[in-house]
């Protein structure tokens, strides 16, 4: 199922890269029109605090230098927290996001969107493509739909001693698991039941710990 957007995304007479990414949150496909948008969408998809994601969600009017303009954000995120305003994201290459003209326009857009009841956030490529964070998310998404039985969850939970951190390899040895067991641990990381230092690449030697309240 294609998640609706306000305008049709295409690359007719253009060299831009477009595509669709499956969202487990939305149980459907979300469109993007640059690889940078695709990569930020992965960040949104992995954020457990986000309930819903929409691409090219709405179009707004804003005033810049005395003239009215139309603006369509790249993504909208709705949060599980009912007290948090929906967030509209604009994704830009670093040289664009850091330019004075863009910052001035963004300030005008931010003020206009605040009146509509939205938070406005700009993300540039340096933050979006920070490594190994992005590679970790790309890796973990492959295990997003992995099934972990309640029995397996209890066995994994019992292997931990309080708030201590353990290497994935050690947990597998304690649980007597094979590579399928490792995939289940990766799934629990994606689900936010196990946490880790995102600045470390994911390998069997990665240290993980229980997330309080997630179980």
Rg, Cα atoms, Å: 20 Å
SSE string, helices as H and strands as E: EEHEEEEEHHEHHHEHHEE
At the fold tier of CATH, the topology name of the largest domain is: Trna Endonuclease, Chain: A, domain 1
- The strand line-up of the biggest sheet is 3-6-7-8
User: What is the mean predicted local confidence, pLDDT?
Assistant: 93
Q: With helices defined by DSSP (H or I, 4 residues minimum), what is the helix count?
A: 8
Broad CATH class of the largest domain: Alpha Beta
Any idea what the CATH architecture of the largest domain is?
3-Layer(aba) Sandwich
Number of extended strands: 11
What overall geometry do the principal axes of the alpha carbons give? Answer: elongated
Structural class of the helices, strands and pairings?
alpha+beta
Low confidence ranges:
none
How many domains comprise the coordinates? Answer: 2
For the biggest sheet, the summary is: 4 strands, mixed
Distance between the termini: 31 Å
SSE inventory with pairings:
Layout: E1 19-23, E2 28-32, H1 35-46, E3 50-55, E4 60-64, E5 67-71, E6 75-79, E7 87-92, H2 94-97, H3 100-116, E8 119-124, H4 125-128, H5 133-141, H6 150-159, E9 166-167, H7 168-175, H8 179-190, E10 194-195, E11 207-210
Parallel strand pairs: 7-8
Antiparallel strand pairs: 1-2, 3-6, 4-5, 6-7, 9-11, 10-11
Notes on the protein architecture:
This protein has 215 residues and is of the alpha+beta class. It has helices at 35-46, 94-97, 100-116, 125-128, 133-141, 150-159, 168-175, 179-190; strands at 19-23, 28-32, 50-55, 60-64, 67-71, 75-79, 87-92, 119-124, 166-167, 194-195, 207-210. The strands form four sheets. A four-stranded mixed β-sheet has the order 3-6-7-8, with helices on both faces. A three-stranded antiparallel β-sheet has the order 9-11-10. It has a two-stranded antiparallel sheet with strand order 1-2. Helix 1 packs across helix 5 (133-141). 22% of the residues are buried.
